[in-house]
Amino acid sequence: MIAPDPDFKQRTRDSFAKQPAMATLGVTIESIAAGHVVLALAHRADLTQQHGFLHAGMVATALDSACGYAAFTLMPAGAGVLTIEFKINLLAPARGPLLHCEGVVKKAGRTISVVDGQAFQFEPGSSERKLVATMTATIMTVTGRDDVRH
Amino acid sequence: MIAPDPDFKQRTRDSFAKQPAMATLGVTIESIAAGHVVLALAHRADLTQQHGFLHAGMVATALDSACGYAAFTLMPAGAGVLTIEFKINLLAPARGPLLHCEGVVKKAGRTISVVDGQAFQFEPGSSERKLVATMTATIMTVTGRDDVRH
Amino acid sequence: MIAPDPDFKQRTRDSFAKQPAMATLGVTIESIAAGHVVLALAHRADLTQQHGFLHAGMVATALDSACGYAAFTLMPAGAGVLTIEFKINLLAPARGPLLHCEGVVKKAGRTISVVDGQAFQFEPGSSERKLVATMTATIMTVTGRDDVRH
Amino acid sequence: MIAPDPDFKQRTRDSFAKQPAMATLGVTIESIAAGHVVLALAHRADLTQQHGFLHAGMVATALDSACGYAAFTLMPAGAGVLTIEFKINLLAPARGPLLHCEGVVKKAGRTISVVDGQAFQFEPGSSERKLVATMTATIMTVTGRDDVRH
Asked: Is C92 at the interface with chain D, CB within 8 A?
């Protein structure tokens, strides 16, 4: 896919840096390409549920950001990004120690984009990453609104 | 709806207390009834996205817990609760200052329960609460597994 | 809810009449109100799956139309309606003999509407209708496109 | 993926043949492999919506069957398959003349399987197939129930 804004990587990093929730959860950028963003989320005891796995909502938060920013890379400069809805399936417990949350644009529309997300777990002693969650997110491109930008 | 376990309220409070993610996000229990749980989430700057609204993932986290625990109230003692999947629609920006996240069981099955969630915002100067997000969650009752309990 | 187009009932009936799939499946209009549409679907052996229940896709088809038209009632004259996505949970087998598929608008936006759907079964010998499926649909208002209208 | 039942292809064809809805809509089997099923759906005027495209519900029906049978290929002999829920995103109008609806298992669990679906359109004069819809379906393996089998 080709990003209409040649400066999409910096624009995405700048917007990500303005999301306090990402810092609070310790989510970091792993890679940015046109229509494809990978975020990293490390296991932390204070983000778990009652069985000691990462709370589904934490995985959803990182995946939603990955999907939203994957769509954002393909938007024109000055546009804002809004999640309309997403659906997540939890396939396996998120035990950690590291998750990669990947968003890949399936369709980049003028108003509506559809993005698939996958969360992969890197487990100690295993050479393969394990798929622990999948997401589909519907993302809206917003223009001309001061309250929803970058 | 009638809970098979007369001690469902205490059992739900105990399990909720074991979710570190709830404390980290400041989510608290507002009310527990059979098949119906309400959690409260206050706006906090460190949980916002780039526009200053609560991150969709934070709303999803509280709603997922509300839905999971609504199903949990109707499970037999000793059962564990797992979210298989959920879908959330974001209807309006979560500006705060207070959200109530409500889970209401639509179907309580032996293995699979389906729960509807709604997040309502209490805005200053308004007498009405505003619907800001809806969720449908598919929840599984797990028995006989030591790693998934309470 | 208040429909901006006073002629919304006739406009909805006219559009519904232009959906050949509805006639093929035997779906009929039960009622139309602003933001609220009920369609009826009778059991038919040629629409079943391998266990003799209505195929999930048939229930989804009628529910999707109910949701789309519920949103359509609140659109301005001349607008077209498109389903962006929907999610359906199947709660109980659709045994028939009659289903009512109901769409209720939760949010009517300028571009995006969110509609909840419920399918109720009327069973012989029972005075209560049974909830057999729930849906959430995200619907788009389309203007200025000749290929997507009414 | 490896099917536990060596006779999974014939078992899948037999079950498919027992779905009257597939014949009614003209859906046929394109290919069956372990964890991977492709169904074909030809455009037919009597299955369209008001703009002349295939009704979203028709695409959903074929995709749901593709996803359900993809999971079915990996189930033990004697098991029944039930769709718990699915979500579909419509990416482009289903203009025809031919759709391939593909289900690919992402996770095959003992009780719950998660399957991704994609609908591709073959357009005249184009050498590439076009993605028109994506689905995620949650499928349940049912054993020991006479009403839900094959």
From this structure: no
